[in-house]
Amino acid sequence: MQNSHRVTWTGTAVMGILNATPDSFSDAGRHFQLEAAVEQARRMVMAGVKVLDVGGESTRPGAEPVDVQEELRRVLPLIEALQDFPVLISIDTMKPEVAKAALQAGAHIVNDVTGLQNPRMIRVCAERGVPAIIMHMQGKPRTMQHHPSYQNVVQEVRDFLFQQAEKALQQGVLSVMLDPGIGFGKTLQHNLTLIRSLSGLAPHPVLLGASRKKLIDVLAGVPDAKDRDPGSIALHLYGAEQGAAMVRVHDAESHLQALKVWNALKE
User: Fold this and answer.
1) Residues tagged active-site
2) Which end is more exposed in the chain, N or C (fewer Cβ atoms within 10 Å of the end residue's Cβ)?
3) pLDDT tens digits along 238-247
4) Which residues form the Pterin-binding domain (predicted)?
5) CA distance linking residue 184 with residue 113, whole number of Å
6) Topology, domain 13-266
């Protein structure tokens, strides 16, 4: 049985991050309990997010892997609790087994930080008739920030994303969105160069996820991740100017307000 659907919009939409992990780099697991996560989701939906991105495995630098059963235990109750919310639900996972179960529980989109490199993940998306978000990551979360290296970061990231997008679409995935993977196996300069070059990922829609990332601390001296929302907004507004179709954020309310004002200034 398929969940086939297609969603379109103009401008830059907001995806709200909903972590079901005890070790999130940003909120230290504050929304790990189901009730707190549902309340956070309710606030983001009321603010106007288009998608809630549910994740049960931290992908912060140095993060250790989580097994399938533990990840399912974290995400499935939350996805089920969100079924009556008027919003799309994305499952943020690297595991085809988790993606399949999450889609069966009511999720609508697969967000894969490994960029659909596992053929089984492509099959899950194609069989269920759902869109996929393809992200670039050099290495694995546990080691990705040890020694990031590229000859030409824009070209290499673009080539990988386009190759994976073509493969997914040819094998029946409904549609794809591309994410350059800010902070995933990149230095500060790599990240800035990619953000300045987002328009080069057209004609595919682009997702930018720079919320509360370490580069804000490096640029502005903000060591505590939860204090990096102003820098996050600045990065994401710049991304919107470059044509990003969606931004993935922790502080949905502030981002939506900023985007409304920014859009009004362009009229």
Assistant:
1) 213, 248
2) C
3) 999 999 999 9
4) 12-260
5) 9
6) TIM Barrel (3.20.20)
